[in-house]
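Schema walkthrough. Field components (list of strings):
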Amino acid sequence: MTSGLIWEWIIKSLVIVFGLLTGFAYLTLFERKALARIQVRIGPNRAGPLGLLQPVADAVKLIFKEELIPSKADKIIFILAPIITVIPALIILAVLPFGGVITLFGKQYSLSLVDLNVGVLYITAVASISVYGIVLAGWASNNKYAMLGGIRSSAQMISYELALGLSFIGPILLTGSMSMTDIVETQKPLWFVVYQPLGVLVFWIATLAEVNRAPFDMPEAEQELTAGYHTEYSGMKFALFFMAEYIKMIAVSAIAATMFFGGYHFFWEDKYPILGPIWLLAKVVALLFGMIWIRATLPRIRYDRLMAFGWKFLFPLALANVFFTALGVILGKLWLIPVLTMVALLVAIYLVSMSQTRRWNKNVL
Amino acid sequence: MPLNFTLFLILAVIAIASALGMLFSKNAVYSALFLILNFAVAAFFYLILDAPFIALTQITVYAGAIMVLFLFVIMLLGAEQTGRMTAARWVRPTAITLAALLVVETIYIMFTQKGTIASLSSIPPDFGAPEVVGQFLFNQYLLPFEVTSILLLAAMIGAIVLTKRKS
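Field assembly_structure (string):
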């Protein structure tokens, strides 16, 4: 372990953290612009050219806002909660490869911070502790709305974590390794989305619930809970929750791109390795637009239906996906996986629609 | 080795402090948080011991899943303030006896096995890798593994039976 290596790690970590922070600032602008366009508005366009300085203006506003701490709140945890929320969001991408190996000044640098042999497990571990900040914020605020938001979010995140973890198993089985770098390298000829159509679907729905995005933004359902777990937060502490949510969006998009959409691999990438991070960024932006599109399109679903959907529909489907993927891998016939999983999805949709029709006939007619 | 040793000392202090904090804090939520910190430190111990798979499983299962449920129950029941506990009469003497036994055992091991802990250079490169752990679990330790899964299944069925709505 030389000092040069340590410097390399520090610089890479700083690049990741500052990249995520900048990404957060401009994702808020991107989301507001995209939502505005979908709702036939113009969106923020006053601060700077095309509204590009809007994130700066927002940051300045939030810094100078008065910070309130409710007198009956648990002060230590009230202050700790936003920090506990942001840290997992910032460190989750540590195992993600951003590109291949580039040569700079006659020395080779790999464009990943660390290639952990249990990289996928690291992601699930960090994802599993990211719920604490929200729960603690809700509890420490000593406010019924915040408390309900916190409890809802913990129940929701625990429930969808299972489906999320199971959807990781598909790429792991196809690669035979838990290292993110191996997973990306195996996808060089063909992206895993081809073999894992159901896996991608389960992953995407589960991550929307994990990062509390619409249509699963239950913890902050405005009409019912004013603002959910961050009702009592103001100023920079509120900004930290906001930051965590958007950084998590970027993180899960990057993970989805790496696990299912070939990571940094795309045209001409093996000839010019410097293109790797650019392709990854393009994929992440496309997936982020998908998230914003979903938010603009779908209404929030009811809480009990959210839980029923997670446990009774998504979780069995994720199990079926694991089963059929293992079957395909063992038989050596990978084309079986998409066929069988899609059949399983259709059967599941048919069964659910039948049971819903039966209930409707019994209760309404 | 000095780097690992300093790291170990720092972590050991945090581990003991968090364990004490868990025992002596008046608020059950703080106790749960100290326990989470303790689990996290245990995970770092595994990392020092070259076992990243166990370390991350420790965080996912204990610090992530189980403690979230603990916090959930504490908050849902409003059981933050533990107050004066009225423990059964046999609890205190049993606890003191067991603790004394543990201390004696630790001292015995420390003084009889001094310096016989395997040196780090003899660890194979794939030590603690997920493949190796899987091989051991599904070959050498298949029976304990299956017994554990049946135990978990029984607990799961029990939970379903207890919470089933009578209609």
